[in-house]
Amino acid sequence: MPANIVVAAAGNVAHEDVVSLVARGLERRGAVERSQANVRPPLVQAPPPRLRFQRKDTEQYHVCLGAPGISRSDRRRFAASLLDAILGGSASSRLFQEIREKRGMAYAVYSFVSQYTDTGQVGVYLGTREDNLGEALQITAEQIADIAGGNLAPRELERAKENLKGRILLSMESTSTRMNRLGKTLIADSELLSLDRIVAEIDAVEADSVCALAASLLDSDRLSAAGIGPSEERFLAAVERVTSALAPAA
Q: Is residue 34's pLDDT more than 90?
């Protein structure tokens, strides 16, 4: 539907030329005047925690813990990005170091954040063998609780800030990244910040803000869990080390 389309361009292009090309394309379809935007109603209330498991004869269990996050316009989004970097968003993050590097329990373990117009998501993924599943999830819960409890050293926060700023600045060397950034800003109806402003916002985040966000977003009572593996019983037992609030799906 043309009214739902956002066109973004970056690189050696002229704005007027892009507008002309898009207009001609839509006119050929004869849909400019007849179409209306299909707008999804904003999320009013976050869904309750859920539990899902798919049995499959895999060598490893694949587990994802997640919860509702924050929107693209929320000022805490910079703190959320730093929380992600500290928890599991890089090779120097806590989960990567504690679960993979120190104990060799998992090859893949990471955290993630996504932000949309009215909501977002935050969570953790890990893939590990059956004998490591419970302990790996327990370590995950302990690291989340440690950050939420205020145990974030200035050096750790500073390292995360430098990592995040470096990744953002390097990504701007990609034309496609610049294009996607423009398009996402239009779709989410959010402010397009300059790189200097983004760096300043990251530098302004304090440790207390990151810890408070961990306590708020990753509280065990908010977490949903999804898994794939040979035994649902093993999966449920492991998830109980993180949260007892989840009940098996009907």
A: no
